[in-house]
Amino acid sequence: MKLLINILIGLIAFLHLYFFWFESFSWTTKGPKVFKQLPKELFPKTKAMMANQGLYNAFLAAGLIWTFFIGNEFWKFNTTLFFLACISIAGIIGALTVSKKIFIIQGIPALVTIGLLLLINNPKSPSTLPDPLAAGWKGESVCEVVQEDAKIRVLRCTFPPGVGHEEHEHAPHFGYTVKGSTFEVKDKYSTRKVKVLTGSHFYKPVTSVHEIQNIGDSTAVFLIIEQKNTYQ
Length: 232
Prior knowledge:
Mean pLDDT: 90
Helix content: 40-55%
Distance between the termini: 23 Å
Protein backbone atom coordinates (compact mmCIF):
# COMPACT_ATOMS: atom_id res chain seq x y z
CA MET A 1 0.00 0.00 0.00
CA LYS A 2 2.78 2.43 0.91
CA LEU A 3 4.56 1.68 -2.39
CA LEU A 4 1.35 2.40 -4.31
CA ILE A 5 0.94 5.72 -2.48
CA ASN A 6 4.54 6.70 -3.27
CA ILE A 7 4.01 5.84 -6.94
CA LEU A 8 0.85 7.97 -7.06
CA ILE A 9 2.59 10.89 -5.34
CA GLY A 10 5.47 10.62 -7.82
CA LEU A 11 3.08 10.57 -10.79
CA ILE A 12 1.15 13.57 -9.48
CA ALA A 13 4.41 15.48 -8.95
CA PHE A 14 5.56 14.60 -12.50
CA LEU A 15 2.19 15.70 -13.88
CA HIS A 16 2.55 19.12 -12.25
CA LEU A 17 6.10 19.48 -13.53
CA TYR A 18 4.63 18.89 -16.98
CA PHE A 19 1.99 21.57 -16.32
CA PHE A 20 4.83 23.91 -15.31
CA TRP A 21 6.74 23.24 -18.54
CA PHE A 22 3.63 23.53 -20.69
CA GLU A 23 2.38 26.81 -19.20
CA SER A 24 5.73 28.52 -18.65
CA PHE A 25 7.67 27.48 -21.75
CA SER A 26 5.31 26.05 -24.39
CA TRP A 27 2.15 28.09 -24.06
CA THR A 28 2.51 29.87 -27.40
CA THR A 29 3.70 26.79 -29.34
CA LYS A 30 1.79 23.86 -27.82
CA GLY A 31 -1.11 25.84 -26.38
CA PRO A 32 -2.95 26.48 -29.67
CA LYS A 33 -2.81 22.76 -30.51
CA VAL A 34 -4.24 21.72 -27.14
CA PHE A 35 -6.81 24.50 -26.73
CA LYS A 36 -8.13 24.66 -30.29
CA GLN A 37 -11.33 26.36 -29.15
CA LEU A 38 -9.40 29.50 -28.15
CA PRO A 39 -8.42 32.17 -30.70
CA LYS A 40 -4.74 31.93 -31.69
CA GLU A 41 -4.09 35.62 -31.05
CA LEU A 42 -4.91 35.04 -27.36
CA PHE A 43 -1.81 32.92 -26.65
CA PRO A 44 0.93 35.57 -27.18
CA LYS A 45 -1.08 38.04 -25.12
CA THR A 46 -1.38 35.64 -22.17
CA LYS A 47 2.18 34.26 -22.29
CA ALA A 48 3.40 36.14 -19.19
CA MET A 49 0.27 35.31 -17.22
CA MET A 50 0.56 31.59 -17.99
CA ALA A 51 4.28 31.57 -17.16
CA ASN A 52 3.35 32.90 -13.73
CA GLN A 53 0.61 30.28 -13.35
CA GLY A 54 3.08 27.58 -14.30
CA LEU A 55 5.23 28.49 -11.32
CA TYR A 56 2.41 27.54 -8.95
CA ASN A 57 2.35 24.05 -10.45
CA ALA A 58 6.12 23.85 -10.02
CA PHE A 59 5.72 24.74 -6.34
CA LEU A 60 3.12 21.98 -5.89
CA ALA A 61 5.41 19.46 -7.58
CA ALA A 62 8.37 20.58 -5.46
CA GLY A 63 6.29 20.19 -2.30
CA LEU A 64 5.35 16.61 -3.15
CA ILE A 65 8.93 15.72 -4.09
CA TRP A 66 10.11 17.22 -0.80
CA THR A 67 7.90 14.79 1.14
CA PHE A 68 10.05 11.87 -0.04
CA PHE A 69 12.95 13.31 1.97
CA ILE A 70 11.11 14.02 5.24
CA GLY A 71 12.26 11.50 7.84
CA ASN A 72 9.69 12.24 10.54
CA GLU A 73 6.54 10.24 9.72
CA PHE A 74 4.25 12.72 11.47
CA TRP A 75 5.45 15.70 9.41
CA LYS A 76 5.75 13.60 6.26
CA PHE A 77 2.09 12.59 6.51
CA ASN A 78 0.78 16.10 7.24
CA THR A 79 2.94 17.81 4.61
CA THR A 80 1.89 15.30 1.95
CA LEU A 81 -1.75 15.74 2.93
CA PHE A 82 -1.44 19.53 2.66
CA PHE A 83 -0.04 19.56 -0.88
CA LEU A 84 -2.49 16.90 -2.09
CA ALA A 85 -5.36 18.91 -0.60
CA CYS A 86 -4.15 22.03 -2.46
CA ILE A 87 -4.08 20.07 -5.72
CA SER A 88 -7.54 18.61 -5.06
CA ILE A 89 -9.03 22.05 -4.43
CA ALA A 90 -7.37 23.40 -7.59
CA GLY A 91 -8.86 20.50 -9.56
CA ILE A 92 -12.35 21.12 -8.18
CA ILE A 93 -12.23 24.87 -8.87
CA GLY A 94 -10.82 24.22 -12.34
CA ALA A 95 -13.70 21.87 -13.10
CA LEU A 96 -16.26 24.44 -11.95
CA THR A 97 -14.74 27.39 -13.80
CA VAL A 98 -12.89 26.00 -16.84
CA SER A 99 -13.37 22.34 -17.75
CA LYS A 100 -14.48 19.11 -16.08
CA LYS A 101 -11.39 17.44 -17.56
CA ILE A 102 -9.27 19.33 -15.03
CA PHE A 103 -10.97 17.48 -12.18
CA ILE A 104 -10.39 14.13 -13.90
CA ILE A 105 -6.71 14.81 -14.62
CA GLN A 106 -5.78 16.78 -11.50
CA GLY A 107 -8.43 16.33 -8.82
CA ILE A 108 -9.21 12.61 -8.89
CA PRO A 109 -5.60 11.32 -8.56
CA ALA A 110 -4.99 13.65 -5.61
CA LEU A 111 -8.25 12.68 -3.88
CA VAL A 112 -7.57 8.95 -4.36
CA THR A 113 -4.10 9.37 -2.86
CA ILE A 114 -5.53 11.31 0.10
CA GLY A 115 -8.00 8.47 0.69
CA LEU A 116 -5.23 5.86 0.69
CA LEU A 117 -3.08 7.99 3.01
CA LEU A 118 -5.92 8.33 5.51
CA LEU A 119 -6.64 4.61 5.25
CA ILE A 120 -3.16 3.43 6.25
CA ASN A 121 -2.70 6.19 8.83
CA ASN A 122 -5.98 5.60 10.63
CA PRO A 123 -4.82 5.16 14.25
CA LYS A 124 -6.01 2.15 16.20
CA SER A 125 -7.94 2.67 19.39
CA PRO A 126 -5.67 2.46 22.43
CA SER A 127 -8.04 -0.13 23.89
CA THR A 128 -7.30 -2.64 21.11
CA LEU A 129 -3.59 -3.06 21.87
CA PRO A 130 -1.56 -3.27 25.10
CA ASP A 131 0.83 -0.52 26.09
CA PRO A 132 4.58 -1.33 26.40
CA LEU A 133 4.31 -2.30 30.07
CA ALA A 134 1.34 -4.64 29.57
CA ALA A 135 2.78 -6.18 26.42
CA GLY A 136 5.37 -8.89 26.83
CA TRP A 137 6.83 -11.82 24.93
CA LYS A 138 5.32 -15.31 25.11
CA GLY A 139 3.62 -14.48 28.40
CA GLU A 140 6.71 -12.96 30.04
CA SER A 141 7.10 -9.28 30.92
CA VAL A 142 9.96 -7.39 29.27
CA CYS A 143 9.46 -3.91 30.77
CA GLU A 144 9.44 -2.56 34.33
CA VAL A 145 8.53 0.85 35.73
CA VAL A 146 11.54 2.87 36.88
CA GLN A 147 9.73 6.13 37.65
CA GLU A 148 6.15 7.35 37.29
CA ASP A 149 4.25 10.51 38.14
CA ALA A 150 1.25 12.45 36.82
CA LYS A 151 3.04 13.56 33.63
CA ILE A 152 5.53 10.86 32.59
CA ARG A 153 6.34 7.18 32.96
CA VAL A 154 9.87 5.80 32.64
CA LEU A 155 10.23 2.15 31.60
CA ARG A 156 13.29 -0.07 31.50
CA CYS A 157 12.83 -2.74 28.81
CA THR A 158 15.24 -5.68 28.49
CA PHE A 159 15.49 -8.00 25.49
CA PRO A 160 17.87 -10.99 25.61
CA PRO A 161 18.70 -12.59 22.23
CA GLY A 162 15.57 -14.10 20.68
CA VAL A 163 13.21 -12.17 22.94
CA GLY A 164 10.87 -9.54 21.55
CA HIS A 165 7.93 -7.30 22.37
CA GLU A 166 4.52 -8.34 21.06
CA GLU A 167 2.53 -5.78 19.08
CA HIS A 168 1.85 -2.81 21.33
CA GLU A 169 0.98 0.87 21.25
CA HIS A 170 3.28 3.65 22.42
CA ALA A 171 2.21 7.08 23.55
CA PRO A 172 4.55 9.86 22.32
CA HIS A 173 7.90 8.93 23.83
CA PHE A 174 11.65 9.39 24.00
CA GLY A 175 13.92 6.36 24.07
CA TYR A 176 17.56 5.86 25.05
CA THR A 177 19.55 2.73 24.20
CA VAL A 178 21.51 1.54 27.25
CA LYS A 179 22.71 -1.56 25.39
CA GLY A 180 22.17 -2.08 21.68
CA SER A 181 21.58 -5.06 19.41
CA THR A 182 19.97 -5.94 16.07
CA PHE A 183 16.17 -6.05 15.86
CA GLU A 184 13.47 -7.14 13.48
CA VAL A 185 10.83 -4.40 13.50
CA LYS A 186 7.29 -4.89 12.20
CA ASP A 187 4.83 -2.02 11.75
CA LYS A 188 2.15 -0.95 9.27
CA TYR A 189 4.80 0.13 6.79
CA SER A 190 7.14 -2.86 6.58
CA THR A 191 9.15 -5.59 8.28
CA ARG A 192 12.80 -4.60 8.47
CA LYS A 193 16.08 -5.33 10.23
CA VAL A 194 17.44 -2.46 12.32
CA LYS A 195 20.80 -2.27 14.08
CA VAL A 196 20.36 -0.20 17.25
CA LEU A 197 23.63 1.20 18.59
CA THR A 198 24.46 1.58 22.27
CA GLY A 199 24.00 5.23 23.28
CA SER A 200 21.61 6.03 20.44
CA HIS A 201 18.28 7.71 21.11
CA PHE A 202 14.98 8.25 19.32
CA TYR A 203 11.81 10.30 19.65
CA LYS A 204 8.27 9.58 18.45
CA PRO A 205 5.99 12.65 18.70
CA VAL A 206 2.78 10.70 17.99
CA THR A 207 1.18 7.43 19.02
CA SER A 208 2.90 4.51 17.28
CA VAL A 209 2.31 0.77 16.95
CA HIS A 210 4.93 -1.91 16.31
CA GLU A 211 6.29 -5.34 17.21
CA ILE A 212 10.00 -6.03 17.69
CA GLN A 213 12.32 -9.00 18.28
CA ASN A 214 15.99 -9.08 19.21
CA ILE A 215 17.66 -11.10 16.44
CA GLY A 216 21.18 -10.15 17.54
CA ASP A 217 23.65 -11.93 19.82
CA SER A 218 23.62 -9.49 22.75
CA THR A 219 21.04 -8.42 25.33
CA ALA A 220 19.49 -5.03 24.56
CA VAL A 221 18.28 -2.57 27.19
CA PHE A 222 16.19 0.57 26.61
CA LEU A 223 14.90 3.39 28.76
CA ILE A 224 11.52 4.61 27.47
CA ILE A 225 10.12 7.93 28.70
CA GLU A 226 6.43 8.30 27.85
CA GLN A 227 4.13 11.28 28.15
CA LYS A 228 0.97 10.26 29.97
CA ASN A 229 -2.61 10.69 28.71
CA THR A 230 -1.51 11.50 25.16
CA TYR A 231 -2.76 8.53 23.12
CA GLN A 232 -4.25 9.90 19.91
